Structure prediction request, 409 residues.
Amino acid sequence: MKIRRKDGTEEEVPEGTPVEEGEEKVPEAPKAPETPEEDEKMLKKMEDIVGKKIESAVKDIYENPVKKSPQYHKQDPTIEKSVMETDLYFRSKRPFVKLSKHMEDFISNVKITAKGGVVKTMQEDDDTEGGFLVPEEFQAEVIRYTTENAVVRPRARVLTMARDTLTFPTLDQSSYRHGGATAYWKEESIEKTASKPAFGKLTLKAKKLIGLCPVTDELLADSAVNLANYLVSLFGEVIAYEEDYRFLRGTGMFQPLGIVNTVGINTVARNTSSRIMLEDIIGMYTAQPAYADPNAVWITTKTGLEQLMLIDRDSTNSVMMFMPNLRDKVSPTIMGKEIILTDKLTTTLGAVGDIILGDLKQYYIGDRGGLQVASSIHDRFRYDETTFRFVKRVDGQPGIATAFTVLGQ
Prediction:
């Protein structure tokens, strides 16, 4: 500890040394906070001290009114509208005559400033008196609706690709259940009939899905949200949505082959144009092979679900598929099979693919690595911009086409 001697000099002495008459102990300077928690505690303590002193001063102003003579009011009839005592003698006793709304705001702002805050207003409801200085308040987040979960990927067979191309041998069952392999019942000593299976192959070739987003350096530095993390999250959802869309409706040209556009799937003729009728549902269920029935699900849109809720047997007879109940949730099954709602199929009733019945385990997805995220200042260096790039290499197509059934036109 330090002791201040009689001559004013300070001397470092061991802790506990007695202080002689005329000398005094020098108070130690407060230690600088070493952790954010200590810093926060010290700041809170200072705020409490300053706040109590200001509140005590305001309380004294309210509890000690200054008496004024009639002559004083006569000299200054506007005294009640004043916020500062104009008479020098009374000002020395009590500086404020009355706390107006402006003075209350002022005192409130002093408190905020003393606590390290920002004065928000002189008068927020009047722009000319300071409202223009008030920053708009907002949460450090971006409001957006959440896209639907993936339909195909969670239920498909997903494989990791070590190279750009992944090939599977397949049994060609397009014409024969067992690809041409047949067994015959024959009598003894009769020439046997030969048969052999036919094979094909399923090839997945990684297609590249890319997202690019240039961002100014100023926006990256000044944004209230962590923009880099937000873009990763957003483009992750964009790519997940896009690949799922193509798993259902892709053409196979530089993109996955979708279920709707696959050659060899079961197609049921529609009974009535631009409608989904009871005969259509029964026809799809019947066309679905028995081997693909246990894991089959229905996939449609809200427009398709509306047709199912109001389904007709024909133009004159209606059938109640769902009980009319506005209290409970809509039954999520037809014929015991789950209904999956999506925005990724066509909403045009009567178009191929407005409703699908299929075993998604027979859809194959090849992933050539995960989502790759990179950023570069060089692409737009002359514009003070950073470019974010998101790349996913993936492919997909049905492994067995007959495991899927769609309603035709």
Remarks:
- The radius of gyration is 40 Å.
